[in-house]
Structure formats: C-alpha cells, structure tokens
Amino acid sequence: LQITGLIFGGVGMVGTLAATAMPQWRVSAYMDGNIVVFETIWEGLWMDCISQLGLRLQCKFYDSVLALPPPLEAFRALMCVAVGLSIVSFLMAIAGVKYTQRGKEGARGISIFILAAGVAFLLTGTLVLIPVSWTGGSIIRDFYDPEVPVPLKRELGAALFVGWGSTALLLAAGAMYCHCWC
C-alpha cells in the first residue's frame, strides 16, 4: 500500500508540475459555422499562446504581475505552493517508506513520516483542486452566458484535465498513507 501510494504521489507530483506549466488552461472555442480554423488561442497561468494552422506557435509571457486579474494571481500562487508541497510530500513519503520497520506491529513500527506525507498529499490535492475547478467553473459559466461575445468564449484546456487527474492521485496517495498510519 505504501509503494502504491508512493507511485500515485509521484505521478500526482509530476502532474501538478505539468498542469502549472502548461499554457492550455483555457482554449479558444469554435462556435461559428466556419469549418476552416486558422488559429487556436491558449491561455495559461504564465503565458498566452497562438497556434496558427498547427504549424506555427507563438507564446508570450505576461508582461506584468501587477496587470494580472486577482484570480489569476491567486491561482498562480496556489499552484506554486502546491508544486512545492507535492515535492516535500513525495520526499516525506520516500523517507516514511524507507524508515518503516517491517518487523514490528503497531504505531511504533510505522514512521511518523508516513502520517506527515499522507496529510501533506491530502493538502496538496486540495490546493490543486481549488484553482483547477474554479477555472473550469468560470469557463463553463462564461460559455453558456449569452452576454459574453463569441470570440471571448473558451473551452476547457488539457491542463485542467491534468490537474483533475493529479488531484485524484494526490488525494488517493494521501488516503493510502493515512490508512497505513491508522
């Protein structure tokens, strides 16, 4: 169970890092009758990208942190904290698996690192879930809002799905480690 939790936590950690770095949080939606699409717009936490005909990709980092909308600043901060905490959680899980005494039964045989890693994985999963779900909810709300112009409507990007998958793995790893402690 501890090794499975370690694998889930490691994959969740990599997924958290990937979701934070990916520019595909919001992807342009095509709602017109036009079949030919010349460009795709990606909006992420750190940059905007435009892909023209799938051949040329241009990305631009946001110029100023102060010019960003407050939710984006908060999402960046939460995801950065989640990346750091996922790395610390993974290292604690490694230490917990290494220092668990297999010959003894009960709480003395299980390292305190197991409980710390479990709680940290649960907290990391929650930190990833908040910005990913909030962004997904706002995309869906704006997509169905008739007052939002069609060129400004967006769809769920790949980074959101990576974030949700990472959340599931991190929460599962945390539950496994907390169960090992109990």
UniProtKB/TrEMBL annotation:
Keywords, comma-separated and alphabetical: Cell junction, Cell membrane, Membrane, Tight junction, Transmembrane, Transmembrane helix
Any one Pfam family match given in the protein's UniProt record, by short name: PMP22_Claudin
A GO-annotated cellular component: plasma membrane
Domain of life of the organism encoding this protein: Eukaryota
Entry's transmembrane regions: 74-97, 109-136, 156-178
Any one GO MF annotation of this record: structural molecule activity
Location of this chain's protein in the cell: Cell junction, Tight junction; Cell membrane
Membrane topology of this protein: Multi-pass membrane protein
Annotated function: Claudins function as major constituents of the tight junction complexes that regulate the permeability of epithelia.
Entries under PANTHER family matching the protein: CLAUDIN (PTHR12002)
Assigned protein family: Belongs to the claudin family.
Protein name: Claudin
Organism: Platysteira castanea
Gene symbol of the encoding locus: Cldn17
